Amino acid sequence: MAFDVEIKDDKNATCIYAKLSVNVTVQYETNTSSTKNVTFSVPSEVTTNGSSCGSNGKAPILVINFGNGHSWSLNFTRNDSMYSGGALIFTYNTNDSTLFPDALKEGLISSTAAFLGPIPLNSTYKCISSEVVVSENVTQIISDVKLEAFMQNGTLGKEVSCDADKPSPTPTTNPSTTASTTTPTPTSKPLDNPTTGNYSVSDVNGTCLLASMGLQINTSLLSEGKNIWTAFNIDPTAMSKNGTCSNQTGTLILTDNSTVIEFTLALKNKNHFYLKEVNVALINGSASSTRQNQNLSAWEASVGSSYMCHKEQQIKVSEDLVINSFDVRVQLFGVKKKK
Q1: SS3 annotation, 214-253
Q2: Angle at CA of residue 207, ends 214 and 86, nearest 5°
């Protein structure tokens, strides 16, 4: 699902063109002091009230309004040769009882991120592949993008593709004097244990969540009409780390170009914490799929101490996705000097 809009100046010439798909996951606090995640897409039917081509020192801005008071906005800057996106602001309305039926805080809440690197002027940015944009309590998967700002004469410029859409270099092979007439048969060699990553989440009071673990995803994928289980390790050096804490919960968000993993830990009877919820989004080009389990009861320990387990454990997220965790050490609240 994509929206397709044009913003015009006072001479009815198009200055901003945008066609893209946006899938959003919002984490919010409920009136029972727990947290929930809700996932929805920006629909194709939108309005652009508040958008502007820019004038009198004001930057051009694209504003997409939809649903019950929700909006997606991006402003633009330029120099002599390039233009860029500025602040990407996603605003959601927790008064929308369809999406947030039990929200504790009601009203408009905004979350800001960065989107769209430098693009040559008079060029159209095109990116079919998905890009994950993470900000406070909001994860966006943006795909099927065709966008240009500062358009000249109301016409689109030449297309510039994102790196993810560009073909991979063809590997070179050295000439061989021995001809081979057989094709190697793939083997189902077990994966090595994943590398242990160290992660932390902070709030105004300091570190509120500390985690160390190795992660391996096992999921069932459709290949040639058959469901085949596939495993891959999470590389902690390739993941961006984000998260939030409230009075009752802490969420760690790990993101790379193909995977988003959200771990939500919560207090239990005020004196203990546990792993309550895991959400996983798998991204393949412009397609994405999400799995979640909101009723977990794992990794329990007393507040002020950490949960530890060196053995391999399995976290069942859905019938077709399991996370194997290794060398887990995690603590929610009461963290002292990140130890």
Answers
A1: EEEEEEEEEECCEEEEEEEECCHHHCEEEEEECCCEEEEE
A2: 90
Cβ 306 vs Cβ 272: under 8 Å: no
Which residue has tokens 């009877």? Answer: 269
* Domain ranges, ordered by start, for the chain: 3-165, 197-332
Distance CA 110, CA 93 (A): 9
pLDDT tens string 190-237: 688 999 999 998 877 789 999 999 999 999 876 667 778 889 999 999
pLDDT tens-digit profile of 44-81?
A: 999 999 999 988 778 899 999 999 999 999 999 999 99
How many Cβ atoms sit within 10 Å of the Cβ of residue 176? 7
Beta bridge partners of 292: 279
Q: Tell me, yes or no, if the two domains 3-165 and 197-332 fold the same way.
A: yes
CATH 2.40.160.110 fits 197-332, yes or no: yes
Percent of the chain with pLDDT over 70: 90
**Phi then psi dihedrals of residue 163, to 5 deg:** -60, -35
C-alpha to C-alpha distance for 114 and 84, rounded to whole angstroms: 10
| Alpha-carbon span 42 to 66, nearest angstrom | 7
User: What distances in angstroms separate CA 209 from CA 29, 249, 298, one per listed residue?
Assistant: 17, 9, 16
> Closest Cα to residue 219, out of 274, 264, 261?
261
Separation in Å, CA 132 to CA 17, 41, 125: 21, 14, 17
pTM of the model: 0.65
Helix and strand numbers, DSSP H then E, in the chain:
0, 24
Supply 210's token pair: 């500390």
Is residue 339 scored above 60 in pLDDT? no
Find out if CATH 2.40.160.110 is the number for domain 3-165. Answer: yes
* Alpha-carbon gap, residue 329 to 113, rounded angstroms: 30
Q: How many residues does the chain have?
A: 339
